[in-house]
Amino acid sequence: MELRVAHLYPDVMNIYGDRGNVIALRYRCEARDIRFHLGQVNIGNPFNPAEFDLVLIGGGQDREQRRIAGDLVGRGPAIREAIGHGLPALAVCGGFQLFGHRYVDHDGSIIPGIGVFDLETRHPGPVADRCIGDVVLETELGEVVGFENHGGRTYLALDQAPFGRVRRGFGNNAVDGFEGARHNNAIGTYLHGSLLPKNPRLADELILAALRRRYGPEVDLAPLDDTPERAANQNAAAIAIRRSRRATG
Ligand code: GLN
Predict the structure, then answer these.
(1) 21 touches 194 (CB < 8 A)
(2) Residues 213-233: pLDDT tens digits?
(3) Which residues pair with 89 in a beta bridge?
(4) How many angstroms separate the alpha carbon of residue 64 from the centre of ligand 1?
(5) How far apart are the CA of 149 and the centre of ligand 1, in A?
(6) How far is CA 58 from CA 8, 39, 112, 240, 241, in A?
(7) Model confidence, pTM
(8) Is the CB of 15 under 6 A from ligand 1?
(9) Which domains, from first to last, does the chain contain?
């Protein structure tokens, strides 16, 4: 089998090591003798979602989001349709924001999104505190850990499912207790870290969804020795809890 991954704007949207998500997916495929093909899609490059099994987009500063937004919006209908038909995707932070309807950035400029998720993001302005720190989520895939650093606050429409609920950290907007968003096999999240190396179950869920969509529902993944990954996950969760206790006294 082969996993074909499209990495959108890797030369621009790669803040806080989100490229580590590609490294984790490649490792978890090749350790199981599953071929791994990476297609890098930068501004102006050809991109047909039908040729891929999984789409990734990482985070970026406001100026980097402005830089890619026009190109991404042009690809929006094809990406929305593919995700509507089950294409798995992982959109992180700035990429997550642009997979919503729009992002009103730190100086009030409106950056258009592609509407995969029914949400919008608004930055409260340059003097507002950023949402920075360790995060622990409760999700359908169990506990997920990561790191967040964003100024924008994301607001889900009533019928938009979150990715998880916040146990530690700010999450989408530091108010409603939700983090990220889910639509079909697409996951949006603020969690950097990078996310997938420390959350092996999430990585495998994305791989499995992609392979079953291409090769059929009977596909399964052989277990890997995830001792280091689980240790990294538990360590990150412990640090998040310890730091949050220290912060709240
Ligand atoms: N520029 C966006 C914000 O500040 C996203 C940041 C990021 O991708 N880490 O909210």
Answers:
(1) yes
(2) 999 999 999 999 999 999 999
(3) 55, 186
(4) 9
(5) 7
(6) 8, 14, 17, 22, 26
(7) 0.97
(8) yes
(9) 2-248 (3.40.50.880)
